[in-house]
Amino acid sequence: MAYTALYRKWRPNIFEEIIGQKHIVDTLKNQIKNNQIGHAYLFNGTRGTGKTTIARVFSRAINCINSTDFNPCNKCDICQGILNETLMDVIEIDAASNNGVDNIRELRENIKYPPSKAKYKVYIIDEVHMLSQGAFNALLKILEEPPNYVVFILATTELHKIPDTIHSRCQTYSFKRVTYDDIKKRMIFILEDMKILYEEKALEIIIKKGEGAVRDSLSLLDQCISFTEGKILYEKVIDVLGLSNEEIYFDIFENIINKNPANLIKIVDDVFNSGKNINFFIKDLIEYNRNIMIVNTSTELLELLDISDERKNNIKEQAKKISTSNIIRILEILLEADNAMKYSNNPRVSLEITLLKIVNLSFDNSIEGIVERIIKIEKKIESGNIITSSNQSEKTVGSNSTASDIDKKVVIENQSASKIQRNVESDTILQKENIIELSIDNNTFNKIENSWSEILSLVRKNKVSIHAFLIEGSPKYMDENRLIIGFDDKFGFHLNAVMKKENKEVIENIIFKVINSRVNIVCKFTSELGKIVNDTKDDENEITKKVEEFFNDSIEKLEIIE
């Protein structure tokens, strides 16, 4: 007798054996109970989620003569005929290979004849989105006024390709991806029935590669059973599926945090020499970093991860070592690399370059990489005082200026009437360190600050997503024509989103519309902003005092001229 694959051998035969789709099972059973069978159903969902299985169980349940609890008995002549594919009242059609107008016209002729033995004549059309436009038009005519003994069950993985005219004439059911726990319980049930030992870590890897599809997961399990000879072991599963040990991803992340590029290159070399698929490897690396991002966002989201408790603890500890903005940047680089590797003739080098970019952003020439380096530079000068000048006559002097390159005229107005004008070396009067030169337009900034609510409102009307990012920031000051917007450190994602070219242009155009002045917005973390001194009176008083001492006279007004 030929061997039967696990996913076929353990295909559910009654509604209670179907996992992960309780919302659909309950609805269909209630329809059978109340004798409210529809004439057309549209099952939508990813592969391996039970669309065809439920269609088959439902077709037997509505025709079974010995139904128990609205399930098929699978023993009567009709159930056996459907199971053995000898009863012609339940017909399965593959739309991928029968997608022409002629095929549907033939179907239209056949439905004129009532069922031979069963109560309903059921047509299960799989991959229905593959039908041609002409075939859909022909099918539409059938669905409009079908005979009362005909039931259509259409199954698709691409609902968006189904014409609205077809969609509107069917009861649509959306199949969910089956959860990690549901697939795990099903696997354990099968393995225990087959008396096969297993490690839970091994099952976790198999389920993860199945991506929520029961059929795919059972196919992988079938493959592993053949390789491991009666015991499903983690190391064996890793080998047979061509995957890498989870510890490798842990080590990669640790070396990224510790900025150790040499170790990263060695890890890539080990992966390559062991014969692992580089494309699979980077996908798993993306998944690992995605888990860290989820936990970094909130530890309450830890339960969303379909991994063992041991791995959850490792992820939780590593998530504490990195900021949200940095892990998002790492994921962006990995996703770009994953896409590029599809067309790369040398994926190994691509992976090495990717990891070097991540561990040292000075190699990253993207906008985000440049921004990261600018932030580091700003941190080096953030301890300095920022002195601003008013719109009238005061100017700020930088600390790097020396007596040899700056010679200023100090104009003094005496109370008596005469003006005394002398050259004073600025270095002897102002010897300050770490002064950042800014030219601030207080008038423009005041307009923006007073109109900020209106600006946010207009941004929201233009694009809600940009408003959601911008609302976490606030205007801080003007530097020439640049509007500095500050964000708390925890809103790094929002800051980066606002600085994207297309979002930035929208905001700048709206500000121009409100205040009739063109500004260039720059976003910064509030912790990185230097101390801004908006009032220069203290500095003027210091200069005034020194000049008064020098001339032994009182001063009415002091002006520094470049």
TrEMBL record:
Pfam families listed in its UniProt record: DNA_pol3_delta2 (PF13177), DNA_pol3_gamma3 (PF12169), DNAX_ATPase_lid (PF22608), DnaX_C (PF20964)
Uppermost EC category: transferase
A Gene Ontology BP annotation from the UniProt entry: DNA-templated DNA replication
Reaction(s) catalysed (UniProt annotation): DNA(n) + a 2'-deoxyribonucleoside 5'-triphosphate = DNA(n+1) + diphosphate
Single Gene Ontology MF annotation: DNA-directed DNA polymerase activity
Sequence ranges assigned to domain AAA+ ATPase in this UniProt record: 37-179
Keyword terms: ATP-binding, DNA replication, DNA-directed DNA polymerase, Metal-binding, Nucleotide-binding, Nucleotidyltransferase, Transferase, Zinc
UniProt cross-references to CDD domains, sorted A to Z: AAA, HLD_clamp_pol_III_gamma_tau
EC number(s) given by UniProt: 2.7.7.7
SUPFAM superfamilies: P-loop containing nucleoside triphosphate hydrolases, post-AAA+ oligomerization domain-like
GO annotation, cellular component aspect: DNA polymerase III complex
Protein family per UniProt: Belongs to the DnaX/STICHEL family.
Stored PANTHER family: PROTEIN STICHEL-LIKE 2 (PTHR11669:SF0), REPLICATION FACTOR C / DNA POLYMERASE III GAMMA-TAU SUBUNIT (PTHR11669)
UniProt protein name: DNA-directed DNA polymerase
Organism: Helicovermis profundi
